[in-house]
Amino acid sequence: MPPVVEFPRELFTDALAEHARLVDAHADAILRAPLDGEEGGRDVSGIDLTCSLLASDGTTHEIHKFRTQEVSFVVQRCHGIARRLMLDPEDGTTYVVVVARDVASLQLLRGVEPKKGGDSERLEVLERDLVVEPWDQWHWRTRRAVYTWWRTPIGELVASRAPWYAIPTKWSDIVSALVGLYEPELRRRLLRYERENPKRRGLAIVCTGDGGDDLRVVDRFEGDAWISGFPATLKAAAHHRPGFDPVIVDGDTVAGLRWLSRGEGRDLVVPEGMHEVLVDEEDEEEGDG
Question: Which pTM value belongs to this model?
Fold first, then answer.
C-alpha cells in the first residue's frame, strides 16, 4: 500500500457533523440494503463480510453494499481508507464509507440483535471517523515519495508529501511494523475490551496473511483458544507486565510477541519481545512415542 497522508481533521468538522447525521438517519437502510448485484434485503448475520458506501450530494443520497475487499477499488484514491479496509472488522461489525461535502470518512457500526418481542435488528455506531480524507485527491508517485494534491473545504489546493517506507523482509521487522501500523486500533480495542470486561485483562492478536489482517482482543489466559502451535509465546503473554499489554502477531507458521505501553509511566522499560516458529503438535506426539 502507498504511504498515507495525515490530513488535519479540524478542517473537516462541519462535513463530519453531516456524516454523523447521514449515518444516524440511514442506519436501517444500510442494514437492509442488498449486496450490489443481488436482490432482497440482508440482516445482521455476516455483516462483517460487507462494507457499505453512503454517498450524498446534499439533496439526495445513495447506498451501495459490497463485499469489503471490493470497496477498496471504489475508494482507492483514499489511501488511508483503502489501507484500513485491509483490516477485517470485528465479528458482528461492518464498515461504512461516507462521501458527502467533498469529504470521505470511514465509520464502524455494530449489529444489534432484538432483545425482546417486537424489537427489530438494527445497527448502532461503534466508532465514528476512523479515517477522514478529502474526496478529491490526485496522486503522483515517485521512487522516494507519493505527492498528493487535495482541496480544503473552502477550495484551497494543498500539496502533501509522504515518503515511501522501507518494506520489511525479516520477521522481527514485520512484527514491529504491523504493531506500529495498528497501534491506534490496538489501543482502542484493548481499552474497549477492559471497559466491557472489567475483571479481565486483554491479549491482542493480529493474524496476518495474503488476504489481509485480522485483529481481535481476547482474555489474556485464553489465547490458546484462538491460536495454536506457539506455547512459549502464549506463556510469555500471560505474564503480568505492569504498564504494558501483550500483542501477538500470528503469521501462520511463525509468531511474534510485542508489548504495547498503556501510557501509565514514561520511565517504564519496555519488556523484550520474542519470536517462535510453529510447533507441529502431531510431530511432537510422534517424537514422544
Answer: 0.79
